[in-house]
Amino acid sequence: MLGGPPAFAEPLLVGRPLVRRRHAWFARLRDALNRRWLSNNGPLVRQFEQAVARRLAVRHVVATANGTLGLQLTLRALDLHGEVILPSFTYVATAHAVAWEGLRPVFCDVDLHTHNLDPAAVERLITPRTSAILGVHLWGRPAPVDALARVAKRHGVRLVYDAAHAFGCSDRGRMVGSFGDAEVFSFHATKSITTIEGGAVATSNGALADRLRRLRRFGLSPEGEVETIGTNATMSEINAALGLTTLEAFDQLVARNRRCYARYAEGLSALPGVGVLAYDEREQTTYPFVVLEFGKDAPLNRDEVAALLEAEGVHARRYFAPGCHSLPPYRRTRGGPRLPNTERLCRSLLTMPSGQAVTDRQVRTLTAVLRRAWAEAPAVREALTARCRSSKGRTRRGRTA
Ligand code: T4K
């Protein structure tokens, strides 16, 4: 785009996993294979649950096959009905879990600065049909837990958190995992602490944890009796083995994320109109995302930057646009008159490649591309327009042919 070959010959991706300490994982796998116990609440799953519970300082952790199933089991175990209030500005799995459980998602706007649920907006959406609030700790930055707890208490509704991004993050020193009735984590391949596919529900409620364990495995009691309708959402030993291995390297993984985040912040600090989403340095955080926010004074807008980066071999992501409320399955769901903050964030944010597989050098190259684009913005815009025209021409010719 700026002349010459693309800056990255091999595409640079958001969420590219890099599994280190493979010998430790393989050793655990070998043990599991020798034990001939590979799933259904095996010893590695139990160890993983204990290790997670210790790190989060919570009483009960129930590992699941993925975060989405963790959310579904939790909503089911709480015996909810009617409506659940949740942010529209989240990954679609949050909304799907609600709808899949036969509940009605009511989409709420978020705060423009925190990107998390606005408690006042939540309260305005509460009706006699509301049975729960489902908050999200978006980007790993805790939702307003105190204010949401007050709203939930005032109206006698349940409070659950989708903590898919927030493993290892704290709010005023207290670890995410211990808020609300339950919190649900994801350990997907794109996360630093990963089980490839996997999730976990954390709760201090023993009865809820028991119910989750039954629902997770066909509704069976510990004695093997079918007590209720359940599903299969168990985590396998292979996944738990990797979870234990990455947990052991927690500090190194976070240090790498932090370094990557700091390189972006340094490299872009002098550019007007673009900010790197901040994490509170006083809290524990894992820097799970590097999110750029483009203001009106940026010489190129978010979509122009995304197109420029794409041409340079960088697949940045427009997480989490469009908001769930405007996705086809939910378009007709009532969610208040408008969600202006959600819509604004959907236009102005871009998630950058970061994490374990991204090197300092790659971040230096990428930020240098952006600095040069800022300096030559009119030429970049012209090149993008020409590119767009020629691709439209190609499509038209293709159709005629
Ligand atoms: N709640 C929230 C708030 C969530 O963000 C998520 C998941 C959930 C609930 C549900 O948790 P899980 O059921 O997934 O445990 C990705 C992840 O797949 C998804 O887990 C995550 N959130 C979301 C934020 O990101 P996509 O739609 O971006 O697609 P994916 O995973 O195909 O690709 C993401 C990037 O990672 C791409 O740049 C490609 C790259 N990638 C991906 C995989 C799987 C690799 O380089 N290698 C890989 O093996 O959802």
Summarize the structure.
This protein is α/β, with parallel strands linked by helices and 401 residues long.
Supply the key terms.
14% strand; alpha/beta; Aspartate Aminotransferase, domain 1; 2 domains; three-stranded antiparallel beta sheet; 401 residues; binds ligand T4K
Describe it.
There is one protein chain. By secondary structure, the protein is an alpha/beta fold. The chain folds into two domains: 22-248, Aspartate Aminotransferase, domain 2 (3-Layer(aba) Sandwich); 250-400, Aspartate Aminotransferase, domain 1 (Alpha-Beta Complex). The chain is 42% helix and 14% strand. The chain has helices at 22-35, 43-56, 67-77, 92-100, 119-125, 145-155, 206-216, 237-248, 250-268, 302-311, 340-348, 360-375, 377-400; strands at residues 12-13, 60-64, 83-87, 104-108, 130-136, 158-162, 170-171, 174-175, 182-186, 199-203, 274-276, 290-294, 314-315, 349-352. It has a seven-stranded mixed β-sheet, sandwiched between helices. A three-stranded antiparallel β-sheet has the order 11-12-14. Strands 1-13 form a two-stranded parallel ribbon. Helix 9 runs parallel beside helix 12 (360-375). The radius of gyration is 22 Å and the shape is globular. The structure holds ligand T4K. Ligand T4K binds at residues 13-17, 66-68, 90-91, 93-94, 136, 162, 164-165, 186, 188-190, 199, 315.
